[in-house]
Amino acid sequence: MVARDFTVDLNKPLVFQVGHLGEAYQEWVHQPIVSKEGPRFFESDFWEFLTLTEWYVIPLIWLPVVFWFILKSIRMDLTIPQVALMMAFGIFIWTLLEYTLHRFLFHIKTKSYWGNTIHYLIHGCHHKHPMDGLRLVFPPAATAILLVPVWNLIKFIAAPPTAPAIFGGGLLGYVMYDVTHYYLHHGQPTSEVPKRLKKYHLNHHFRIQDKGFGITSSLWDKAFGTLPPLKLAKKNR
């Protein structure tokens, strides 16, 4: 299904075009188009709607779920300090998951029709159109599907009173990640820490895309040797 010398028509829905690029997909998808207006993904209005999410929908939907899981642990006689500790552990686990997914799944090399198509849907679209504000956060329907096996895994591994707090912490970490990611693209930070994070992340998009996989921090990039080269980082200042 890969077409030789295929050219993507940006005026048509993109999802089922990009697979035809074959090996040329990797180069194409890492040449960003800087525009706040995103492309159309699907012919179907229904499937197109499911790909569009305002950033504030994420905390609106998931923070109540976080609080519900916190209360679940409290009702099982976990003390407030114990809940806080388990939540901190959940957030810590999320930061590692954030890094791992971004590095090994979102930046996987593809060249087959369906490989390119799936990669474009999960992350390639963000690198091609990094300022598309309606596709910067993860659609809630997809998140809900993924949370089911995650919750079942945590229930299997952790003790019943601690599992909800760990899960709630991990989910809170995800909310913080998605909201931070949106802010790094569209916010105008004035204090030093968010300024550094914004420069760090935009460096990943526009200068060296195979380094700097951390979004909320550079902790795991430092731990696993994927910090961007110092000279390139300085040029970005």
TrEMBL record:
Membrane-spanning segments: 55-71, 78-97
Subcellular localization: Endoplasmic reticulum membrane
Keyword line: Endoplasmic reticulum, Fatty acid biosynthesis, Fatty acid metabolism, Lipid biosynthesis, Lipid metabolism, Membrane, Metal-binding, Oxidoreductase, Transmembrane, Transmembrane helix, Zinc
Cofactor section: Zn(2+)
Gene Ontology annotations of biological process type: fatty acid biosynthetic process
GO cellular component term of the entry, any: endoplasmic reticulum membrane
Example of a GO MF term: iron ion binding
Predominant localisation class: endoplasmic reticulum
Keyword Oxidoreductase: yes
Topology with respect to the bilayer: Multi-pass membrane protein
Positions of the Fatty acid hydroxylase domain: 88-226
Pfam families linked: FA_hydroxylase
Stated family: Belongs to the sterol desaturase family.
Entry protein name: Dihydroceramide fatty acyl 2-hydroxylase FAH1-like
